[in-house]
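Input record (one chain):
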Amino acid sequence: MDLSDVLKSTLLIGPEISLIVAGIVLIVLGSILKKKAGIYVFVLALIGLAVAFGLNIERFGTAETAFGGALALDQYAAYFNVIFLIGALAAIVFSKDYLSATDEFAAEFYALILFSTSGMMILSSSKEFMSLFLGFEIMSISVYVLSAFNRKSARSTEAGIKYLILGGFSSAILLYGIALLYGASGSIYLDEILKSFELTNPLFVAGAALVLIGFIFKIGAFPLHQWVPDVYEGAPMSVTAFMSVGVKAAAFAILLRVIFESFYPIQVSFMPLLWVIAVFTIIVGNVAAIAQSSVKRMLAYSSIAHAGYALIGVVAAYGGQVLAVSSVIYYLFAYTFMNLGAFGVLTYLSRDGKECETFDDLSGLWSKRPFVALSLGIFMFSLAGIPPTIGFFAKYRVFLSAVQAEFYWLAVIGIVGSVISAYYYLRVLVYAFMRTEISPFPSFKVASSIALIVLSIATVALGIFPFDSWDLALKAAGTVLTAARGG
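The corresponding structure, as predicted from the sequence alone:
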């Protein structure tokens, strides 16, 4: 590549560059203004996200590549980028009051969210393993620091250390798998690996297996799910919200791209394994969630179960089923709104540096904060898959894709798991709406209230009118499958 190609490619990744530049400016501004930075860094972070969102919209309907084909700036990446940017926006808005109350470093906090989001966006666009690994590390290192951001909390420090150590192991496994694939194919590009893939070559099979192990860890699926409840519980609430949607969606984005653009010939061998992983992920996540006394930890186990539901669509996509791939993409889009909202309510109800964690902390919410209780009800109904919320339509599409692919038992297990989940989601509402004893609640929070209203309306409106967003998911799925079939 000559200098002109580099400059052109740099301009093409405007959304990612805007986030990185905004993050650097935030750190500089924060170091100058220190604790007076407050509202300035908050507004600047929102501007950075707005610019990235506007530039990303231009990618819908295009199929550009950058840096010699290393990044695909297509509709598939653009759709996932919307998920990442929504997650970052909500996390920053919900963090505003938290950072004011705990006297933490707001500029650094917002910058880390922007850096992590840029890594997710690079990851979703990756067409070769070096940019893939770069995106993974930008995302992961930022989230490691965010998990341990509350320096006054031993649990937060523990969460950051656990995530760092375990994440380091998963990165090493992923990198070793990449090395094996490079040794077998002589290339790090997904399409070139696809063309040279040989099932009889043990290097190909071993490399593909190690790469998938790295992805399964990031998704938080069985049997590499143990880090999820501990890290989610220890991290600050808004960070947990961001991780639960952003990191998971980014891992699924690259999982789908790698499976269909690089490991396509080996699907017949790996899909039964993913079938088993999906089943146990659903079972373990739902059963463990029932036993939790902490709402935050319950939602952490719930996120494991939701990874299992999304994996149903991955399994059903065997052979390149566009409806199944789009069901996974749409499920992650829907999960963004309802899970951000659920953690957003807990963030809203946290006060004086104490997080809203237990079920008792929600007692009497309806009588004291009815609009917050109503939002909580919407998000819990959506997570349980109850109509007319977006969660119902998303689960319907995933289970329907399994039926159409003739994975009937997988669909049945998913439906049973969803029914089981209704118990612990509705348990939250029993405390919020039916308990007479009233817990102390914080004063009205403007920014968080606006975010909850927007997420609540979107959760219901997109459940009633889902087809425009579903059509975009279909087009995104078609993009990655067309690449897998060689254009």
